[in-house]
Amino acid sequence: MRTFLKTLKRTVAVAAVAAATFTLQPLTAAHAHDHAPQTRPGASVVGGTPAQQGEFPWMVRLSMGCGGALYTRQIVLTAAHCVDGSGPNTSITATAGAVDLQSSQAVTVNSTQVLQAPGYNGTGKDWALIKLAQPIDQPTLKIADTTAYNNGTFTIVGWGAATEGGPQERYLLKATVPFVDDATCQKAYGGALTPGDEICAGYLQQGGVDTCQGDSGGPMFRKDGAGAWIQVGIVSWGQGCARPGYPGVYSEVSTFAANIKAAAAGLGG
After folding, report:
1. Nearest to 129 by CA among 168, 92, 101, 155
2. In the chain, what are the domains?
3. How far is the C-alpha of 235 from the C-alpha of 227, rounded, in Å?
4. Could you tell me which residues come within 8 angstroms of residue 165 by beta carbon, excluding any fewer than 6 positions away?
5. 91 is annotated as an active-site residue
6. Is 216 a catalytic residue?
């Protein structure tokens, strides 16, 4: 059985910072199963530290309580479980351009169309594209199209919960997690893991660092051979947040790179 998806199923009041608060929009009823006793992940980064303004300029916060990254300046790559199917959709708001979601530098743009991974049924294929009404003037994050970077240490970022069951964050947090091979990850999750579709990362013995509720759809990335950031994963699910013995599970981007590229071309922008 699947474990915690890293999304939000209800309106979440974000922790007050400098005497200010804000509220994220709730997920639709289709996501009500996400926080059953066992669900998939999606929160702020547990064990993280504040990101600097401009450090990860392609990061996007989505109004349904998920993260994402600019695949192009007008298309956001996120998780399939964050959206409700494919088609025209103007209900999603993307916020980008600032680590502080309340900053005057933050840019907000509405969606126009959503493309959920064809064949997505809750197991594997956890990617989706959201086309925006207009481009966001920020750098984009390239995706891995081979398994060459599915190793080493990865960076995770998000505005999700900083503790399991905690409130969403106003400021972007970052952390690093090591790769966990499929065989080891399967010892934790058994048949729930879909090798080839998914990649695992985390501190298996001690836990303490992970994505969490609200981080779903955000990127997991590392440096490529030229020193540029490259996305290798999409925050998908896990057992709780940062628990020992249970690494985070991410959609393996290289598996779907060709499909993502073709889908983005079909959306235009």
Report:
1. 92
2. 1-269 (2.40.10.10)
3. 22
4. 213
5. no
6. yes
Set 84, 126, 210, 215: catalytic member:
126
Per-residue pLDDT of the chain (269 residues; tens, 9 = 90+): 455 676 653 222 222 222 233 333 333 322 222 322 233 333 358 899 999 999 999 999 999 999 999 999 999 999 999 999 999 999 999 999 999 999 999 999 999 999 999 999 988 899 999 999 999 999 999 999 999 999 999 999 999 999 888 889 999 999 999 999 999 999 999 999 999 899 999 999 899 999 999 999 999 999 999 999 999 999 999 999 999 999 999 999 999 999 999 999 999 97
CB atoms closer than 10 angstroms to residue 162: 23
Of 251, 245, 235, nearest to 41 (Cα)?
235
Catalytic residue chosen out of the listed positions 31, 35, 44, 81: 81
Residue 220 carries which side chain, given as an amino acid letter? Answer: M
254 annotated active-site: no
The one catalytic residue among 216, 236, 251, 254: 216
Look at residues 141, 166, 150, 149 and name the one whose alpha carbon lies nearest to residue 46. 166
